[in-house]
Design a protein that fits this description.
- Strands 5-4-3-6-7 form a five-stranded mixed β-sheet.
- The chain is an alpha/beta fold.
- It is extended.
- Helices cover 37% and strands 13% of the residues.
Length: 304
Amino acid sequence: MAGLGHAELVEMVVALLGRVEVLELENQRLRAELAKNSGNSSKPSSRDPAAERSRQAEARRAKRSRDGKVRRPGKQLGGEGTTLAMVENPDEIVVHAPAACRGCGASLADAEVTATARRQVVDLPVVTPTVIEHQAQTRRCVCCQATTAAGFPDGVRAPVSYGPRVKAVVVYLLARQHIPVERTREAMADLFGLRISTGTIDACYSEAGQRLKGFVAALVALLRTLPVLHADETTDRIGTVTVWMHVVSTASYTLIHASATRGLEAVRAAGVLIGYRGVIVHDRLALYWKLTTARHGICSAHLL
């Protein structure tokens, strides 16, 4: 610091104090962000660190112990039970007859049947793919000698393609069971002997999405007529990219719209809430207050 004048030293100290203040504010912001979890913010539980998830699980166990509501393994008290029941007309009957008398050893081949005990086993048949060949004939008219070719049914476009049931199973595994593409490919090979490429699996999913366009349009129109809607949004991952899932729902209907943004553009693209005149129940996210044609209700779960 030798050679610096008084004014220069004062200027340096002021600059350093300003820098310290900025760093303290940044430190507070980072600490507050680090302290956020699914219990005290809108952060989804899937983004909680392992230690926080463990703490929440322990708190739930402790609460159940205090309330006397310790969950037992298996069916819970009051829960709806399911049990296997015999059918009157089984698909196959296998008869087991004793070969010889246990008393004297004589043959029982022609002996009288005095009683029959029944037990049934529910199993799946061996599933093997069936190949249906479509042949489109061309025929010549006996009157004018003109030839006419038959057309192929809808969906039979390529020389070899997968049928609607195969595509339905692929989409079910992806959309309902949330199995990744590679594991869906593996499941189709293991369960059905079908070696489907990941590109074809993706194409099946895209085709299903296209077929749902009419349904989604009808659902959007219906939701706009309902008096109360719940709106929320949460993150998901596509590869390494974060996307936002915008949800508009009631007890009976749910629309999920995926978007790269959390903002108003995603709400506009979903098509329900812009211009909606009913009540929107939400978590107080700023974008919802911009929907001025609607009335607003606050989600109690978020407040808690």
